[in-house]
Amino acid sequence: MYSLSTHYITKKSPLSLLIIQLMNTLLTSEEALKILYRHYGLGEIEYCMFIRRGFNDTYLVDAGSDKYIFRLYLNGKYYVDSDDAYRFELDLLRHLHSQDIPVANAIPTQTGEHLGLIQTVHGQRAFALFHYAEGIALNRNSVTTEQSYQLGVALANLHLAANSFESKFERYMLDLKYLVDEPTRLICEGESCVEPKETIRRGRHVIERLQPMQPYIDRISNIGTDGDKFGVIHADLHLGNVHFRGNNLTIFDFDHCAYGWRAYDLAISYSLPELQQASMVEGYESRRPLCQEERDSLMDLGNLRNLWDVGDVLATQSMRAE
Question: Taking the complete model, does pTM exceed 0.85, yes or no?
Answer without folding.
Answer: yes
